[in-house]
Amino acid sequence: MNNLVRKMDNVLLLVLTVLALSGCATKNLKNDIKHHENGRTLYNNDVITAATITESGKENYSWVFIGNNFDYALTSGASDFLRTLVSGKIDKARVRVSEDGTFTLNKEKNQFSGEVTLKYSYRDQSEKMLILNILKLSEWYCTGNNKGAGECEIKLSGLQGTIHQKAHVPADVFRFDHPIKVKFYTRNTLSAKRLLYPAAVATDVVLSPLYLLGGVAVLSVYGIILLH
After folding, report:
1. How far is it, in rounded angstroms, from Cα 144 to Cα 66?
2. Most buried pick, 8, 98, 118, 153, via CB within 10 A?
3. How far apart are CA 71 and CA 65, in angstroms?
């Protein structure tokens, strides 16, 4: 009885395999297209070395990242952190880069969005609480040791802005102790493999009888075996 059940399971597996193979070319092509169109391509690199502000009227200003190749006017994502850093409320010497910046460009390559992850090395619990309160961080973002020192992660997510040709760099810019390396990516466009869909479908249609015949032949052998 156990042998019969085992053979029936094998037959079922074979049937499912035949059905799966019948659309193999189309399925593989679809997966390739999806992988490409959901991906990104490295476009360029830059290194952000400083930050400054630009005034656009009374009490209106915006932050600008200064890179080696371009300047990046920020519209969101880092104002609170930069204001705290520049004002000296936190020690810039204790800030380091944890993960380099990853920015995605728009189609025209004049706007970007992305994030940068930094670490702040605090010396004691009072400094830790200062960081948590000023940057509105959660305890989950910090680790420590028995001596009271540790690190807090500062994730500058939701960074958005526009890209500009380099302007004259003011003398009073705020320079980072640890420059931030940034990788710029473009979103992949529609895959050229979409043009192969008709050929893939035709291939599956042509080969499906062969898959089925092969399956029937094997099933016949299993039938003979089952009879015995």
Report:
1. 33
2. 118
3. 6
